[in-house]
Amino acid sequence: MLLRYDPFREFDRATERFFGSRSGTTSWMPMNAVRRGDHVEVSFDLPGVSPDAIDLTVERGVLTVKAERHQVATEADEVIARERPEGTFSRQVLLGDALDPAGVEASYDAGVLTVKLPVAEKAKPQKVPIAAGDKAAIEV
Q: Per-domain residue ranges for the chain?
């Protein structure tokens, strides 16, 4: 259904943990993917991100999510701790041939972006008739 392959992903995560992000951007956002009947549901955690700051595209079998979160601070603010990542976040997920990108639906609620991808008709289970000797074919 979903193909997950990025040979440098773990290296990027380790580098960001140890050195931080030099450009102020990160490529990491947590995700869950579950097949529910005739669709796959992919959920991305984007706490504190405005719906207007989310860009979702599907192109050539790749689902791309981009989002921005910025802290609003004034010169008079004294930063005591800054642990929440901010900047531009992006995540790409390779879609297998079993999914139909034409019917993608998305919703955003309580900091979670949920994307529903329908399973293609050709990937759905089909009943196969079984011939029993001289008898007519029976459905299983």
A: 2-139
